Give the backbone structure.
Amino acid sequence: MTDAAHLKGEETDYKNLFVEGLWTNNVALSQMLALCPLLAVTTSATNGFGMGMATMAVMLSANLIASSFRGMITPQVRIPVFIVLIASIVTLVDMWLNAWMHELYKVLGLFIPLIVTNCAILGRVESFASKQRILPSIADAFFMGLGFLWVLVVVGAVREILGSGTLFAHAPLLLGEQFSWLEATIIEDYQGILLLVLPPGGFIVLGLLLSLKRLLEKIAETRKNKSAPATTSSMETNSIPEANA
Amino acid sequence: MSITPVSSPHAHDHSSIYRIMRHVCFALLPCTLFGIYIFGFPALNLFLLTIGSAILFEWLCLRLMKKSTTRLQDGSAVLTGWLLAISLPPWAPWWIAVSGAFIAIVIGKQLYGGIGQNLFNPAMLARVALLISFPVQLTTWPMPQESFLDTGFLDGLAITFNLAPIPDGATGATYLGALKTELGNNASAVEFASTQVRNSDALLGFSAGSLGETSALLILLGGIWLLLMRVITWHIPLAMIGTVIGLSALFNAIDPEQYAGVSFHLLTGSLLLGAFFIATDYVTSPSGKSGQLIFGAGCGILEYVIRTWGGYPEGISFAVLFMNALTPLIDLYCRPRIYGRSLNGKPKKYNAPLADAVEQES
């Protein structure tokens, strides 16, 4: 979509943004971006949640600012400008976390500054926010961030349950004492599988999650093909959704 | 009458995966039977459980991936389970056996694409994953018993299925583990070797250790059988054992207080088992002779370094896995010469009259 199209008042398909962000174009599971923080911090569900929230905050602000200034940033200088912009936001988030959530900061510490190098953020700014109006840009950042968040929490939860037998341990550090009910011990007297807490566990769980997503998509596709009327050829059924998109 | 052309080779020695696996299993038989004899029923349970679950996981994977289940008959799953079982502590509980077989067969072998495709030795991959995940179970070493029946059948079942704790008196340290502890207490390696290690026990195998690693003599017997049957060549075992002998002799000469001698390194731990049965895996070792020598020497160096300066008392599985990862690189630089071609892969120059004849024919 071009700016000209927006000036004509073309509607943005928010539902499509939602589906893309959470599933079909998911940052981690489809674009395969931001895997470094994903593998590094997901030793527990709480860590994953904290990282997801921080990334989402950076994504929202970066998309908002990049979209507001899209008319002023020329294509020649856009990449340095975006990087400076993202770096400034990350610095702010870093200091804010250090000041207000110091315990969590001690766990995530190293990885917060590294959000700068998170390709997913630059990717959204470059491919979406720099070409779109403010509202769709914010929506895109929110849904993409949400998509990243759920993957982080799921990978973190699986590794935490199998690795140490708990779920959302230390959640009050992040969310405050009123969320202490979230902390759960799933398996009593559990010795733990250390491998899943160590880096290989991240790769194994992410790999299984990726294959699960592929499997679900394949099942959905075969169902769709079956429910399609027999009179239309497969060529036609394939081309219809593309025409709508 | 029509003759169907058959492509070469026209003569072969009826070698097959099944034949190789059968020979390796046969060669493993003495040290395994001995291990089961000295460690009793729990060891037998562990052995059967590991192999049984390896076969089960192999069958499940083949079914899931819609491959022919006749592949089970090649015996490779049995051998993987077998190698894993004899590298585990003999009284390990049932879930160590089952999860180890799962890691070896499903993650270590089938996820890479099945037999012949795996980058790492599946049995060693499973052993390392288990050692890292469950350090307590993987370092509980029972002492050898006087006879097979010292632990009764029901007691054996209770130990395997976690119903009864292993009595503290029945466990001890391996020679390598004890040396590491003694050296940590500033004791001398000379004194340790002379007072606490009986070379005859280490040679025959009456010591604590993994199920099949204790008897150096019986492993050597199996290794020689494999060499005679031409299942393996001498390159990897010789390079590996030679490197360890050389390094231990060198460092022992420099400081005998700090570094144990040659016979200690040779007879304890799983060096011989690794050199003859594990590092020589066809799939995960280089195919050229020079490459195999480099691979074996690399395993030997890593083995000695981990034993002497590493955090673990024994490092054969880490050493083999590390060199497995380097195998593609070694293969790249140590390609065997192709028949009829020079080392660079260029066709060899023919003698002039012969070359003329070839040109005329074509």
